[in-house]
Amino acid sequence: MARVVVDVMPKPEILDPQGQAVAKALPRLGFEGVTSVRQGKRFELEVDDAVDDATLAKIAETFLANPVIEDWVVRRVEP
Amino acid sequence: MARVVVDVMPKPEILDPQGQAVAKALPRLGFEGVTSVRQGKRFELEVDDAVDDATLAKIAETFLANPVIEDWVVRRVEP
Amino acid sequence: MSRIGVIIFPGTLDDVDAARAVRHAGAEAVALWHADADLRGVDAVVVPGGFSYGDYLRAGAIARFAPVMGEVVAAAKRGMPVLGICNGFQVLCEAGLLPGALTRNASLHFVCRDQWLRVENTATVWSTRFEPGAEILVPLKSGEGCYVADQHTLDELEGEGRVVFRYLLDSGGGTGSPNGSRNDIAGITDARGRVVGLMPHPEHAIDPLTGPTDDGLGLFLSVLDAVGAAGALAEAVSGR
Amino acid sequence: MTSIQQIDTVEHAAATRDHPQPYRELGLKDDEYQRIRDILGRRPTDAELAMYSVMWSEHCSYKSSKVHLRYFGETTTPQMREKMLAGIGENAGVVDVGDGWAVTFKVESHNHPSYVEPYQGAATGVGGIVRDILAMGARPLAVMDPLRFGPADAPDTRRVLPGVVAGIGGYGNCLGLPNIGGEVVFDPSYAGNPLVNALCVGAMRVEDLHLAHATGVGNKIILFGARTGLDGIGGVSVLASDTFSGEETGPGRKKLPSVQVGDPFTEKVLIECCLELFREGLVVGIQDLGGAGLSCATSELASAGDGGMRVELDRVPLRAEGMTPAEILSSESQERMCAVVRPSDVDAFMRVCDRWEVTATEIGEVTEGDRLVITWHGETVVDVPPRTVAHQGPVYRRPVQRPTDQDALRANIPDALPRPSTPDDLRDTVLRMAASPNLCSRRWVTQQYDHYVRGGTVLAQPADAGMIRIDETTGRGVAVSTDCNGRYVRLDPYAGTQLALAEAYRNVAVTGATPVAVTNCLNFGSPEDPGVMWQFEQAVRGLADGCVALGIPVTGGNVSFYNQTGSTAILPTPVVGVLGVIDDVRRRIPTGIGGQAGDALLLLGE
Ligand SMILES: Nc1ncnc2c1ncn2[C@@H]1O[C@H](COP(=O)(O)OP(=O)(O)O)[C@@H](O)[C@H]1O
Question: Might you give the EC number(s) for this enzyme (chains A, B) (predicted)?
């Protein structure tokens, strides 16, 4: 059994209304010094050892991320 | 300027319909061997060097995560 | 005339409906702007539905920090009646006035439909006009309406009779939730029965011309009974 | 980083007449490019080329449809025009509905973007049409969404349909606009080219009608709403490369996706902000930014006004670094508006924007003369007669030819098909029909849309037409329906389009409202196909002649060409929207029969 993390983030040139809303709110809450925020998704998967990296990449690209507007990174992590 | 990542995940005891939907869909798409999926959020912040760890923890706890239903981790990363 | 405040955040949508419901019930609706830390002397407050700040982070997460919310929390602690509808319910949970949280519907889809509810508690200031066990039909429209709380909180809510509204599968049918809510909870109250939050929209059910029924008016009439009586008492005591 | 020296100025363009330009990559034909050179008396700058190419595109210039659309105007009688306050050519048609109320409505297509990225494509489709209505000075009141998909069980439909529905709901729900109707139709011809049309209806007091005019020398041009980013500038990125030889190095942004992401919260705030600006009388003219972004807004405002316009492009607030003037002019970033404001009102204007936390920037002013001049850090990058950009694009009379298979198609009548005859057969057929994707309940779609918000919805799904109250005191309201059966139109585009009109008209009439105006969204294949052009011509004639027979005018519409998979066109789909007026919504006729036992049932017509 392996643990896999897939991080999915909006592409840099794509508008990120969520991150923007957080960034705008922070000074109002009294937190200064945060100059930019981007918000994406994090997936934590438990996979059988038989699942290889190519398959994981495929899952991320075709399903977890929307390649038109998002970038993604797949990482195996220590359990 | 520092880069900070905040990972926010649903608590284990909280139902995660999004993660479940992903887990259920994968075998239908021909991907076997993924036994569990949880979906959370990932925030990437750019912060001034003056912002200390205590402040970052506060931002995560009071704002980016809802401690009733979510766990969170704050990490500084290499730029 | 009693004055009921209706809060407007950027992105609030059902404020016109909440104000209309207040007027239909016979009170004056007072618009309260999110950026003003001022309740303008109202007798009760409605936090209406919508998508405050787009709900991009988490429903209600940003709105609860608005200047007006500080006043609402303070007033609620003094016993002012507060009603949170849909996004307003989410804001009240985020602000800690009500326990638990609202998460993504189990179906993952936004759902807009006419929904049967059972009134479980008729002792709150927002529900005295209903018969115990009354079944009402009001619109439900939300994407993050799934009520969750830890088991201890749920036990407490149930034990103290603080579940005010519960989802029904149908009129006369058993309970069942359209969004995965724990214990089929549609609405709850604080321990004193003065702060109430619910996901369905009573303010959209005040006239059968534009809503499924006028069942929702009961909440607004209830609170007017409470603040009207309190007002009369205060007037009598102060000899006004 | 683009340094200022690299910018292609007017002066530089005049000095480098033979500098090759990638006009073909931008979709311009040789003769179109030559016309631009003739108009300017020199080669265009990069920024000018970006403006002309996008404004002279089929989508913006109606170059293939113009000669046919004229027929609407030619057939509209003064009597039909009586209640029309604004018609074809404005952002949206406006009709007087009585009691001092004016109503505006329009449908627009967002077909191709919705195929590439269903959620965002559909979402920004709603956002765009809502801004069109807002730009007329009206409060947007409701939306509708006529949709067409490939077969319900096709893999692509499973990708596209849920995304489109979620996008329309996600954006519309968050804006607080009730969805009061639409269509969901499945047909194999839409498999590689679904149709996502969005309609918005809004209301205002007659005296509040705002038209997109930049009038009054000295008046300021204010851009407000979202920041400008690299969204949707796909094609124009060829201009950013050093050379046009397709080198992979250099600062060119060749691989930019032309996808726009919607921000409904920003749009909601923008709506409230605009309505407050209108109420306070702070706006002389206003224009939304949609397709073609600032190119469109500046050239249209300027050419509709009585003077010229000067714009300082470096003042535009940007979201991305190093954007060139051409990119800024072409960006299709959503949730932006452009207003013309008297100098004395600028402070008050800014205060209202501040209150709604809307970014607003003065970017220029109305000038003497008749040129649109755009500068970049003091250097002139655009100097054009605005009408040549906005209104004097190429016009084509494309070949029209009745398809050779039309007769065979019409001869292929259903008489030869087996008909159910036994009770069991009939039962079976009825059940199959009721369960078929084109006839089954649309609840799965419609329950994802809020139809209650604002408390004015009197009829919505599953009613024949949506109906909203516009005046709470008098109960005055309007009803809208959109319809089109593309199979009928394919068989006979003239009569088929009239059937669409008749259906929408009936759907409005049965609610108790009186039909008063028509809008349309004409979805067709390639205009370069003479058979498609024939369908188009017939459809326009059918619709116009039908409107004359019914005595109500076409007040606006939208044309979407190039809807095809490979060389196979979609079924011709002229979606027709009819608007009706009812003086008291309490007298509406609800859908359904048999409210009371003993009610008599009458069949009208043949
Ligand atoms: N995409 C949609 N969005 C909103 N409403 C829709 C949509 N599709 C269908 N509807 C509504 O569902 C109801 C039934 O639609 P439909 O079966 O097309 O009706 P009809 O066949 O009577 O024209 C109508 O009220 C229609 O407006």
Answer: 6.3.5.3
